[in-house]
Amino acid sequence: MGLVNISNEVAEGANILKKRVLNSMFANIVEEMQLHPQELTIELNASGYHQEANGSYEEQICALVNHLVAQRDKSVKAKIPMHFWVRPAHTKTMAQFARETIYVLDVHEDGQAWIQAYAYNEVIDAKGKPVEIGTVCTAPTIQAKALLHDLVEAGITPPCHGAEVE
Predict the structure, then answer these.
(1) Containing H/E element for 10?
(2) What's the superkingdom here (predicted)?
């Protein structure tokens, strides 16, 4: 479900940001999926497009773009199905859009923690053309705790996902 208790002003700002980020995803989706073809199937399956994941490359790209268009057109105040939740591709694109690394702390119930650092990098595609893509790098528990300590000391608190963090 989406957020229901947010002001219209906050919703309007969030919708504008969401549309800009999703428009950024459209700009190089073909190039990024050619560089990382496994991501296309992962994104389609996570988005509920299981049948389309078995289609041709063009059908797969079309299904993913149609899903992203539906996300772009849906208000942040709307109730949404689980497959509308933000995926790593969105967070990578947000890092590109913001031109900043985004740190996400993932804490599991067994106490294990990882920090994902979402960023961007320019790579060269098969045609020799430079393409900016989103990246994600995961650090295991020991490194995650050290990085979390450094981030908090610097006044940065990463979003936490998973078990409650004390």
Answers:
(1) helix 8-27
(2) Eukaryota
Nearest to 47 by CA among 23, 65, 29: 65
Do residues 72 and 112 share a domain?
no
Q: Give tens-digit pLDDT for 10-50.
A: 989 989 998 998 998 888 888 888 888 888 988 888 888 88
In this prediction, residue 82 has a pLDDT band, given cuts at 50, 70 and 90, of low
One-letter amino acid at 93 equals T
| 158 lies in the same domain as 131 | yes
**Is residue 2 in a domain?**
no
Number of domains observed in the structure of the chain = 2
Rg, C-alpha atoms of the chain: 17
Q: Give first-to-last CA distance, the chain, whole Å.
A: 26
pTM > 0.90: yes or no: no
Q: For 28-164, where are the alpha helices, taking DSSP H only?
A: 29-35, 37-46, 57-73, 88-98, 141-153
